[in-house]
Specification:
With about 140 residues, the chain is mainly alpha-helical. Helix content is about 75%, strand content about 10%. It has 2 domains: about 110 residues; about 30 residues. Strand 1 and strand 2 form a beta hairpin. Helix 1 packs parallel to helix 3 and helix 2 runs antiparallel to helix 3. It is globular and about 60 Å long.
Length: about 140
């Protein structure tokens, strides 16, 4: 019963996050369709993200990241302790969280920009440290 309850509650959480929270808190929506020829198409939609409340955006994105991170940690812990049935459930919930995170990330130009800035900053820091290390060795 516990396994069934976790899967059902996880499914409800996935649906509410995807169809209610994303739309009302941050103005983002995504879905996928299967065309008549069998091809799967993902559709991403976003309202003007500048209008949305910054506190709502912070809460929404933090909860998405924490949810996925929590399930990832739980999955790894259950895998290490060889609790395979619990690991399968944690992995299923991790997949739900990952799909929601991917869908909303693809919708949000703001989040994509933040990731690009973070990546650019990390690369420049690595390059700067590499140049310093080479200079110190010479």
């Amino acid at each position: 019963m516990i396994y069934l309850s976790v899967i059902l509650l996880g499914s409800v959480d996935f649906w509410i996050t995807k169809n209610v929270s994303g739309r009302f808190l941050v103005g983002l929506r995504w879905w996928n369709e299967v065309k008549k020829d069998g091809k799967e198409v993902w559709i991403f939609e976003s309202k003007n993200e500048k209008i949305e409340s910054s506190s709502d955006k912070s809460i929404f994105w933090t909860s998405l990241y924490v949810n996925g991170g929590g399930w990832a940690i739980l999955f790894l812990f259950k895998l290490i302790t060889l609790s395979i049935t619990n690991a399968i459930i944690a992995f299923t919930m991790l997949i739900f969280a990952g799909i929601n995170l991917y869908g909303f990330f693809k919708c949000s130009k703001d989040q994509q920009g933040k990731l690009n800035k973070l990546g650019t900053k990390a690369v420049s820091n690595l390059a700067r440290e590499g140049i310093r290390n080479i200079g110190n060795q010479l």
